[in-house]
Amino acid sequence: MSTPSVPRVVLFDLDDTLFAHRAAVETGILRYAESLGSPYGALEADELATLWHELEEEHYHSYLAGDLDYEGQRQARARDFAARHGVTLSDAEASGWFADYFEHYVAAWSLHDDALPALDALEAAIPGVRFGLITNGDLPFQRRKVEAVGLEARIDRLIASGEVGAVKPDAAIFHAACEAFAVAPGEAAYVGDRLRTDAIGAARAGLTGIWLNRRDAVPSFADELDALAAGVRTIRSLSELAPLLTASR
């Protein structure tokens, strides 16, 4: 397998790649459940966090698929979480419940510790390199996160599925980002924490696809075969990114 050329543009997923989304979600739901008290204290902390992550995966992907609108997926997450604790919420109550949780989530927003050092290392290793984000989600909300953690000064462009009309791993969203930077797909690298959605999708679109496997996840057999066929590279920390992308020099 050939070594990819040094990219002119490095694109990143946002949540759980640069932005510590999972940690903020866990902190947010645990602090909110604690503030609510009974009956939300019936589950252990890890069980509460796992349940909330599972509901996020289920209902946020329903939103991306067009089955729920943005507020609808929030209501569904709150309603299902409450139901697991014997509490029934109306749509209005679910919206209020989620809004209260959201304050705790926002208070826990941060970048991963390796995010800014990785950008610094790339700028030092690849003079003139530019950075962008490709995210499945609502543009104003994702921009709010970028600004809150101080990334806006480092990122040239934010490409969101809500604006493009295509979601990862559709090649269209990766090509839209390349067009925004006026580069060919082969001149760009893309880094994300989801193997199929991010790395395989990017590689199949012609970019250098890089899987950030922070949690040492074991891919399915099908994902492993597809990643190999697509030429996906794997790193476990963003500190490995600059050495990987400049290895051909």
Characterization of the model:
This protein is α/β, with parallel strands linked by helices. 51% of the residues lie in helices and 11% in strands. A 6-stranded parallel beta sheet has the order 3-2-1-4-5-6, with helices on both faces. Helix 9 links the parallel strand 4 (188-192) and strand 5. Helix 2 runs antiparallel to helix 3 and helix 3 crosses helix 4 (91-107). The longest helix has 20 residues, at 45-64.
Straight-line N-to-C gap: 16 Å
Estimate percent helicity: 40-55%
Q: Pairing-aware structural class of the strands and helices?
A: alpha/beta
Number of contiguous helices: 11
Low-confidence stretches: none
Q: How are helices and strands ordered from N to C?
A: EHHHHHEHEHHEHEHEH
Number of strands: 6
- What does the oligomeric state look like here? single chain
Give the DSSP E fraction (strand runs of 2 or more residues): 5-15%
Shape: elongated
Comma- or semicolon-separated keywords:
249 residues; 6 strands
Short précis:
The chain has 249 residues and is an alpha/beta fold. The protein has helices spanning 21-36, 45-64, 70-83, 91-107, 115-125, 139-148, 161-164, 171-181, 195-204, 221-230, 241-245; strands spanning 9-12, 130-135, 157-160, 188-192, 208-212, 233-235.
